[in-house]
Each structure stands twice: as C-alpha cells, then as structure tokens.
Amino acid sequence: MVSMAAGRTDWTRRRNEFEKRLxxxxxxxxxPGSKIVDPLDCVPLLEAVIRSGDRVALEGNxxxxxxxxxxxxxxxxxxxxxxxxxxxxxxALPSHCEIFERGIAGIADFSYSSPQSARVAKxxxxxxxxxxxxxxxxxxxxRYFVDLTPDVALITAISADRDGNLYTGPNTxxxxxxxxxxxxxxxxxxxxxxxxxxxxxxxxxxxxWVDFLVxxxxxxxxEPLFTRDPALITDVHVLMAMMVIKGIYAxxxxxxxxxxxxxxxxxxxxxxxxxxxxxxxxxKICSHWTVNPHPSLIPAIECGFIExxxxxxxxxxxxxxxxxxxxxxxxxxxxxxxSNRAMCQVAGHYAVxxxxxxxxxxxxxxNSSTAVAGRIAGFGGAPNMGCDPPGRRHSxxxxxxxxxxxxxxxxxxxPVPRGRKLVIQxxxxxxxxxxxxxxxxxxxxxxxxxxxxxxxxxMMYGDAITHLVTEEGIAHLLRCDSLEQREAAxxxxxxxxxxxxxxxxxxxxxxxxxxxxxxxxxxxxxxxxANTSHLAARSIRxxxxxxxGLYRPPDRFREW
Amino acid sequence: MVSMAAGRTDWTRRRNEFEKRLxxxxxxxxxPGSKIVDPLDCVPLLEAVIRSGDRVALEGNxxxxxxxxxxxxxxxxxxxxxxxxxxxxxxALPSHCEIFERGIAGIADFSYSSPQSARVAKxxxxxxxxxxxxxxxxxxxxRYFVDLTPDVALITAISADRDGNLYTGPNTxxxxxxxxxxxxxxxxxxxxxxxxxxxxxxxxxxxxWVDFLVxxxxxxxxEPLFTRDPALITDVHVLMAMMVIKGIYAxxxxxxxxxxxxxxxxxxxxxxxxxxxxxxxxxKICSHWTVNPHPSLIPAIECGFIExxxxxxxxxxxxxxxxxxxxxxxxxxxxxxxSNRAMCQVAGHYAVxxxxxxxxxxxxxxNSSTAVAGRIAGFGGAPNMGCDPPGRRHSxxxxxxxxxxxxxxxxxxxPVPRGRKLVIQxxxxxxxxxxxxxxxxxxxxxxxxxxxxxxxxxMMYGDAITHLVTEEGIAHLLRCDSLEQREAAxxxxxxxxxxxxxxxxxxxxxxxxxxxxxxxxxxxxxxxxANTSHLAARSIRxxxxxxxGLYRPPDRFREW
Lengths: 560, 560
What we know:
2 copies of one chain form a homodimer.
Chain A: H1 13-25, H2 42-49, E1 55-58, E2 64-65, H3 67-74, E3 84-90, H4 94-101, E4 105-112, H5 117-125, E5 130-134, H6 137-144, E6 152-160, E7 166-167, H7 175-183, E8 188-196, E9 212-215, E10 221-222, H8 235-252, E11 256-259, H9 263-278, E12 288-290, H10 298-302, E13 308-310, H11 319-323, H12 341-350, E14 354-357, E15 361-362, E16 368-369, H13 382-385, H14 397-405, H15 410-413, E17 422-426, H16 443-451, E18 467-470, E19 473-476, H17 483-492, H18 505-513, E20 517-518, H19 540-546
Parallel strand pairs in A: 1-3, 1-6, 3-4, 4-5, 6-8, 8-9, 11-12, 11-14, 12-13, 14-17, 17-18
Antiparallel strand pairs in A: 2-10, 6-7, 15-16, 18-19, 19-20
C-alpha cells in the first residue's frame, strides 16, 4: 500500500466559510431565527455574505430577473468586494453591466446577452469585463455541478413563507437548478420575493435551501420575450410556413417539436388550425411541444391540435390562460403552471422530432450565426435544441426517416443505420434592411477576432442542419452526399444574394429532380394563395378572442 | 378570423381524473387529512389509483429500488388493472418482470435492464412484454416532459414527515425528475418510505407533490453497483490505465471527466496518487468529476488530487465517508450527500473534457456495443456521456486540442474550427473467456433481428470515439482523415483477433510514425514495470484504511 503521508486533512473549508458568512449575514435579519431582511439592509447583507473572487449566480433568466438584487449588487462597496466571477444565464439588464463598470465583477460566464450585446462588447474591449466562456443554457447548468458551482446564488421568487419555502410559479425557470448547485456545495442563497405569506400556493423550493429572504414589495421584472404580433406576419412568412408544414412536418410525420421565436414559426403556429387542418394533419403532426407558452399557439390549442406543452419559462399575460388549460400545460396542485428551463432543454435536446429556428447569416457550408460585429449576444438555447444529439437511442418515424435519408452518415460510421433529428432553418434570403442572409464570410469571424474568442461563435454548424427553408424553396440538406452538394443546394435556394447568384441553374434543376431541392411549385403550393388570410389570428386582439379573454397581453401589445 | 366552432371545450380531464383517484385512494389513509397508508393496504391503494392503460413510472433507478411498491404492483388484480405502460429507468428486480408475466403491464419504455436482460428478451419473444423504446437515462427523462409523462409515479424515499415532505438523501437519483413530471401533469404520486418522522434531516421533495405515503419499516433495496475490488485489477489493466494517463489525460490536459464502471477505469483512479503524481500531474488532470462515488476514488481524494465530485446516485457504504468530505462531494445543509441523476447526466454530457468507458465488442468502423444475443440490456447513461455534444459552445484546452486534431471535421462543416470532447474506449483485445472484442459483425445486429428493433442497439458509434486503448496501444481515432484510416488504426491495436490479424504491419508502422497509433514503447511506458504494485490500494481493506474507517463496504466485499 502506498503511503498516505501527503494527504489533505482539512475537508470543511466550504462549510466553515458558509457558517461564517451565515453568521455575518444574520445580523441583518429582523429577529433571531428569521431569514427575512429589510430591503434597505440588502446592500450590507450582500457585503456580508459575498467575498472577493466569489462565483456569483445572479438570477438573470431569459424572462424573469432578480432585478432588485442586481441593483443592490451594483451598490456594494467595490473596495471591499470585487473581482466577482458572474455565472449567470443571461446578461439582460443595465445593472448586470453596471456590476462590471463599477469594478465589482471581473469575469462572466453566461449564455445569452442580446439585450446588452453592444455594451458587453464595449466592456470587453475596454477590459472591464473578461468573458470566461459563452454557453448554451444547459451546458452552463452542467458546469454549475462541475467547475462553475456558485458560491452565492441571488435568486427571485414570487413569494416565500417564514421558513424560506419559495413559490416561483409559472416563471420557475432556472431557479431550482441554481439553488441546488449552490446550496449543495455549501453556498449562500439569497432570494428576493414580492412578499412573505403565511401559506404559499405551493412549494417550488424547500425552505432549508434558502438562507435569506428580501421582501421587496413588488414583482420582479419579467420580459414578454415570446410574444409576436400576428399583424406583423407577411405573405412571405406564410409561404415559408406552408412549405414547412407540407414539405417537412407532413412528410416526416413530425409529432414533437420545438419552435424558436420568429415570425416564420409564428406563422406555422397560426396555420395549424387552417392550412394544416385542411391537409388532414390534425392528430398527425405537432401534438407535443417543448416551447415557451407562445400566445400564437392559442388557436391551435383551442382547436385541439396540441396535446401537451412543456415550457422553459412562462410568458407575460399567458398565466390565466394556462391555468385554465391544465390538460395541455404543466400545472401544479395549486393550479398554476411550473416551468423548468433545465428539464425543458433536456426534452428539447433529446425527446423531440424537430427544431425550427432562424438565423441572420449562413455560409456556403450551412454554418449559421446571429453574431454581428460589435455585439456579443451569446447562444441561449438554440444550439442545444438545434442539433442531432448523438446520445439519442429511441426512435420515432420522423427520426428513422431522417436518418435513412442522411447521405453522409455512411462516411462516418460505415453501413450502419441510425436515426436523426430534424433541424430546420427558416431564413429569408434578405433580412431586415435588405441585408443578405447568405454570405461568403460570417460576421462571426470578425467578432471572434474582436473579442478574442478561440473559435467563431457559430450558432449552428452546417452538419446539424437537415433543412433550409427560404422563400425560394426547401433545400433538403440531409439528402446531400457531400459538402459540395450541400453547397449547391444552399445556393439553389439563396435567391439573389451573392451566394445565390453562384447557383448553376442546370445543377439546381438536377437537385430538384433528385428531390434535394423543392420549390413551392414542386410542393404543390400556390404562391399567389400564400397570404396572411390563412392565419387563424391576424392580431393580438384575435388571440385574446380565441382565448375567451383568458390571455391578457401586456399593454405594449394592445392596439385597442 | 377563422371560425372557432370546432374548438375543444373540456380542458380538465386529467385534473378530474386525478381528483377521482385521489378520492378513491383516500379511503385507505389511516385518518382524514393524512397521506399515510398502512403497507397492508398498499395493494388496494394501487388498485384504486391506477387505471388500465396508465403510464406508470415505477422507481427503478440504477441503485435504489421502490421494491415494496414493485411487489405490491405485482399483486394487484390483473382483471381490474392491466395493460400498464411502464416508463422507468431500470428493469432491475424480478418483480419488474413479474408485472409483465402476470399480465398487469404490457409495454415498457426504459433505459437499462442488464440484471434482467435474459428474462426481458424471453418475455419479448413470448409476447409478454412489448418494448416501446430503449433510451439513455436523460432522453427518457426528456420524454417524461413530452410524450411519456407518467400518470402514476411509484417512488421511494428514506423518510417522510406527516405533510408528505420527503428526504431522499444520498440516493436522491431520479426521484425529483419523476415526481415533477408526474405531479405537474396531475398525476398521482405514491412514496414508499422506511419511516415517518416528525422532522426530516432535510426536504428533498416538497410535501404537496406527494399524495400517499407507505411506511414499510425497512430501507428500500439498494445495490452497490459501483464497487470494484482492487484485488481483481490485473497488470494489463494497469498497463492500459498508464497509457490513458500518460498518453491522453496528460497530453490533452483533461481536468473534468466521467468514468464508466470497469477495472480499467478503476485502475486509472488508483494510479492517480502514484503514477500520475510521479509524472507531476496533480492539479493538472482529473480535478473535477461527474461520477458515482466509486470507493476506488478514495485514495485520490485523500491525496488532494480531486476537487469536486457530482454524482448520479450514491454507493452503498460511502455515505459516512462522503459526509466527512463536504469540500469534495455535493452535501446538503443536513450534512448528507444529494445526488441527482438528471443534472449529473447533463453535466456529464456538456461540462466535461472526457468520458472513459468500456465495451464488449467493436467493429471495424469503431461502432461498439455491449449487446449480446438473447439479452436485452439497454443503454444506461453511456451514450449520453460518450459522445461529443454538438450543442456545446464553451471551450477548454482539451476540447480545443481535440477539435483541432479531428481530421474529418472539415468534410462536414468546411474550414471552420470547433472543439471536441474526448471519448475513450478501454478494451482488452480478448474479453472474459478469451472472446474476441474486435469482430466483423456486432452481436447487436442479431439482437436487432431477434427483438424486432428498428436499428441495431449500438452503444457508441464510431464517429463519437476519439481514442481506443487496448493492451497493444492507443489508436488516436480522431486523427484519422477517413473511415479507411480509422479502420487501419483500429486493426493496428486489435491484437490477435480476426480483425487485428488483418492489420498491415507496414501501414501500422506508418500510423505510428504519424502519431495516430502509439504503443506503450512509443509512450515511454515500460511494460515490465506496468503491474499492480503501483496501485494506491490493492484491496477493499486498503480502501477502508485510506478512508480512515469512514468507508463501510457491504459484507460481500469484506474479506476480513
């Protein structure tokens, strides 16, 4: 037996540190044994429980924000506490940047920062923020349990009871994951809540997992990120949506899926009760969803098209509607929805037939990116859902058929069958401001150089994408047997962009003959008939009507 | 606006059904308002709350088992309740099969069934069990939130209080995931517990999420699945382990990782404080783990080699040791460990540099499988961890280097850099009983035909594997620029198997020259010195000594 001399002997550093901080923080609780801290004492509380160099998970989700705690964190004494390492899903609020501007935090590991993308890029170039890594949500959650475990979690809930039990309600989102990672590594957990109540509607987080409660007297900030006004859907969106429904969903029998946000997917959702129904597809496609509660799903739900929806987060205004549709949404014993970003990302990765997203730019190989020079926006959840998970082992008709059609698989694993998830990109050949979507060089390369990234921030790689849909047609990229053929198929539907003009008409014709490229005509879709009159709802108001008044859109979406 | 005439009007079928069942089940609780049911009434309770055709999640984890509830489920009246659809992680106990033999269940969706693999195959061939699909753990959990949501969850915990709050302790495993999926779709949750207590050590599952408690007066069955006796490690295991440490971990700088179970990985763990330490690798490799609490990790922990371990489940006998090493393991406010299979699988998928596993058979393309004709064993978690997740976007030195070396990536995505996770297979050229590990045709094909699977049950596909390690050497498969070169590299280390004898010595020499194949000699490892004297512990007893008596191995592993 090898000597045991060089052994480590101290095994409770984290626990001792926790006890010390808890003790220091408790001077700010109202009465002995309580966890409740007056909001006016929150800044000194944070100064007591956070140490320089700590990893801090400040709950900034896709939707809800621990905004009060973020403001307080900006106001702690940077002389006393600095060099924090922020490990948080989203950099969304100005205060999230202030923490860096004021020298309190030095490094950020995150997933998404679109609302602050220009400022993040500026802070990086000025040396005020170092970026650890940019993740998708689920991989950041994974690292919470490996090498980015938070020392302190600053979270938000709707209400708490005196024992610290939390009700997070429809916007449960990341909270359980952050708290579990922090609390079970002896971290400090501070929750801002609207109020303290005697009895919670339900318990989402057990009280012992929470150390301090700050009742701030108002709801936390939440953003209606997934609401799209149907009035802004164009005839082109309708055309592309019809192609997806008829040329892909119906063909492959797509039962379970995730939709990104965008007017193309919004159009698909609003065509389900009309165009899809007229094709006899009810019960055959789009029955099971991993998706945020998009208001544009309401008509399809009301028509009985949709059986089940599990969500990453909630959506402002949808709470009452969801509570009244408990057969469809994940609703707790108390009657309100519970989301869970981690488990919904798992489901969107592993358990669905198809992902549909959009992008700003695509190169000749099919690599796509939403990166823009001068903006560091992150990835969110798209790369996790917009890929074929190699660990998947269960089959579905869609998965088997897509696998069979994948012409490059044999080059990788020999003559062995395996299935494949559908990954669909809906891209107009020219985006906002007539900027071409198909380019020779992705802006991701420029951003990589500017920001000092080690690889360009590609949202989805070309080998992940099975279908590219533009207003020109569908390119069945999975059917291409080489990178060269994929390139030709992309060009064939890239319209009048520089890339599209490189398409060889003879080759395009041959690709159509082989079924690799399909135009609307090939799909039997009449372009003249592809217009917004087919949408089940053409305004927010009509969505409200479909919901029987249960959907309550935020004011900014009300035109009445 | 499209007509809303054809709308669905009934939205509370699941809730009404839940209320009805709850009401019927409550006739078996001891007193009004209580959730506690006498174990003697458990069979009629299950008959009251389960309906024919239900999806039932019977908690059968990798380690702990809701064995009492499984026994009771076998004894319900099959005339009254039948055709159940079991959706459970593991088919492990004889009772799990009895449920099918007795005609109570008809179909199974599961992940792993090795302990009952022969019986499962027999039941399938006799038509007593239909297999829905076989999954990895994480994808089954994903489907719990999409199309396989349980109507009834039969789970197990250590203890409960009168409100139904549960303490699941170190073996928390799948429980939170099963309960969340079932309860938030208005399912019924029944928990067997050892006992009801006034105050739980901590709350792992909130009480409102649990409908009925059955205190059975004894712990549930748990299996020490991850204990390997160091005495059974051979010199060949040591040789292969040295190659992995020196030729892969040190080369790529592997900081975070997962190990499968097997004597090869066990040897690596026991060489960390000796061989790896002598190479100056402490602090440079293997600091962060997603792994079950293998007893063979104890010496590396005691030497300070390991910073952090997050676990899928627990391991019998390790409880006290873990509780005394709170800086390393994930320990709750009560002082005991909490595992979480879902989050650990997420971390193992997305957040680590390397996975090391083993297999029974590999074909010329690198596809590997543990499938054996006549046995349906499932996948467990290996395919989820043993793959390069395409959604990963954060980098690490290991990931960047492996990506750079991946010679086939350009064929897939053009000249664009991306990283790669290391997936290492340790395989002796001949397995138990001198059966060759390298074969022309995987038994998975035969099993596919026998069992009527749609694709062969491949554990890992050849394009996932970066390194193959046999006693002959390391084949750096990621460095191969074609399927043909990969085949040559596999043959070069396949020894005297049929496949190995096809190796062309000249080609092998060229592969060695290019660094695609490395022999122990190429790595500077003296075969004569590769023996078990280097292991930090050579018996279970020595592991106990390393732990200062805190590790308490089950009787079957005690030779003293």
